[in-house]
């Protein structure tokens, strides 16, 4: 889908540009900077900062809406231009590879989102079986 392609490309561009900006700013910080605390703290500290930003997102949006809107529009437009230049996938192999990758990621997310592993495996097996049963049921309907 072209909508999925362009929206995903723009979202990845916006998030990736934030990471690039953080990396560039870390080069200008002194040696004993908070960036090293973030690197040492790992995901837990990063998730705390993300939670803090989301907690204060309404205040950030109200005070700095011009900067936030201009950043999202500028980076979104550049990401859209890059996606438009390369165009959506047209090769059947690439489309199948993307489809299988997205389905595998979905199964991994399903497994990691359920706390009881046996139930997670049962749900994944059920999902795989229902996907596999789609074709025989369709063949039986055509035969009938």
Description of the structure:
By secondary structure, this protein is an all-alpha fold. It folds into 2 domains: 85 residues; 52 residues, no CATH class. 88% of the residues lie in helices and 0% in strands. It contains 6 helices and no strands. Helix 1 crosses helix 4 and helix 5 crosses helix 6. The chain is extended. The two termini are 33 Å apart. 1% of the residues are buried. The model has no long low-confidence stretch (mean pLDDT 80).
Quick overview of this protein structure:
By secondary structure, the chain is an all-alpha fold.
Layout of helices and strands:
Elements: H1 2-28, H2 34-55, H3 57-63, H4 65-86, H5 92-113, H6 117-143
Content-based structural category = mainly alpha
- DSSP helix count? 6
The parts where pLDDT drops under 50 for at least 5 residues are none
Please bin the fraction of helical residues.
over 70%
Estimate the mean pLDDT confidence. 80
How many domains, in number, for the residues? 2
- Global outline: extended
Number of strands: 0
Biggest pleated-sheet summary: none
Rg, Å, rounded: 22 Å
Run of helices and strands? HHHHHH
| Strand residue percentage | under 5%
Query: What is the distance, rounded to the nearest whole angstrom, between the alpha carbons of the first and last residues?
Result: 33 Å
InterPro entries: NEMP_fam (IPR019358)
Main location: nucleus
Protein name: Transmembrane protein 194A-like
Subcellular location: Nucleus inner membrane
């Amino acid at each position: 889908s072209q909508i999925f392609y362009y929206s995903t490309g723009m979202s990845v561009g916006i998030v990736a540009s934030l990471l690039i900006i953080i990396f560039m700013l870390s080069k200008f910080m002194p040696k004993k900077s908070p960036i090293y605390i973030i690197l040492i703290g790992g995901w837990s500290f990063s998730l705390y900062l993300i939670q803090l930003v989301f907690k204060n997102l309404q205040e950030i949006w109200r005070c700095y809406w011009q900067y936030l809107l201009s950043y999202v529009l500028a980076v979104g437009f550049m990401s859209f231009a890059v996606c438009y230049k390369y165009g959506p996938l047209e090769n059947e192999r690439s489309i199948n590879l993307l489809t299988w990758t997205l389905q595998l990621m979905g199964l991994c997310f399903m497994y990691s989102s359920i706390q009881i592993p046996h139930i997670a495996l049962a749900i994944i097996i059920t999902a795989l079986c229902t996907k596999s049963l789609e074709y025989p049921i369709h063949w039986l309907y055509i035969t009938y």
